[in-house]
From TrEMBL:
Pfam families for the chain: DAGK_cat, YegS_C
Alphabetical list of Gene3D superfamilies matching this protein: 2.60.200.40, Probable inorganic polyphosphate/atp-NAD kinase, domain 1
Protein name: Probable lipid kinase YegS-like
MF-aspect GO terms: ATP binding; lipid kinase activity; magnesium ion binding
EC number(s) from the headed UniProt entry: 2.7.1.-
HAMAP family linked: YegS
Biological process per Gene Ontology, one example term: phospholipid biosynthetic process
Compartment annotation: Cytoplasm
SUPFAM superfamilies linked: NAD kinase/diacylglycerol kinase-like
Enzyme class name: transferase
Naturally occurring in which organism (per UniProt): Pantoea phytobeneficialis
Annotated ranges, domain DAGKc: 1-133
Cofactor: Mg(2+); Ca(2+)
Positions of the catalytic residues: 271
Amino acid sequence: MQNQPLTLLILNGKGAGNEELRTAVNKLRDEGFNLAVRVTWEKGDGDRYVQEAVSLQAETVVAGGGDGTINEIATALAALPADHRPALGILPLGTANDFATSVGIPLEMEPALRLAVLGKATAIDLARVNGDRYFINMATGGFGTRITTETPEKLKSALGGVSYFIHGLMRVDALKPDRCEIVAPGFDWQGDALVIGIGNGRQAGGGQKLCPDALINDGQLNLSIVTAQELLPTLLHSLTRDDENPNIVSAKLQSLSIRSPHEMTFNLDGEPLSGSEFQIEVLPGALSCRLPPQCPLLA
Ligand SMILES: Nc1ncnc2c1ncn2[C@@H]1O[C@H](COP(=O)(O)OP(=O)(O)OP(=O)(O)O)[C@@H](O)[C@H]1O
């Protein structure tokens, strides 16, 4: 047992009372796995536990929480020198779990924990924003952002992902597109954007596939702009249908810059960042992540 590599599970405190998880941790420990658990209380705790994982020479750090928890752990891992960087495992305990769901991680605790400890570590891309912020799944701006940041907590826990959709429709009267310019090598767009999605992964906001072709190891980011020419039809179409929408502009890019005359807010894996200028770039193969063998987001 002492020779087993250490896995440090960093658990968002919101999920600490989960009995199914306690049973799964005990089961894996009984099988001889060297599994330690740390529980967060506030932002910043995840980062400190990643430092502890490095000093304990943990082979894997498991992010137990929603997309925001994965973001915090991925950000802390990205700051480490590559040769000291543990692999990332994911235990879905959030409301929406967009990243975990789309990469095919089981929602049941025991199979998810087993995968997080034993799954094959695969190099995946990470995206960096303005030099010091990151996203592993998706950055969303415009109306989509307001849906995810403003959905009340009670509605979120009662209805899960569906609440984003309902709450979004309730706020149709408050729609205000973001005027901006998006520039990249070989790409230049300006206009009114209803939703901007920049995907390393495919979906955000509780299952909305804004970047349906994105891959997490192709060294590129998928940009989708839902333009605001025909506001309501576009919104309904983009939220309810999977087929081609003429009001969506898309591109695959390695870096891009977004400028707006007004302050805009982007949600980086659900964590807000406001400003009028955003420089976004992909860091190919920056993290090593334990994923299912049939992960649909791998090239
Ligand atoms: N004990 C805690 N209680 C409440 N919030 C916490 C706690 N520990 C950390 N946090 C904060 O929770 C946020 C991350 O939450 P996370 O996104 O993982 O959960 P969620 O909102 O339930 O999931 P999802 O994004 O999938 O809806 C981070 O900002 C982190 O600082």
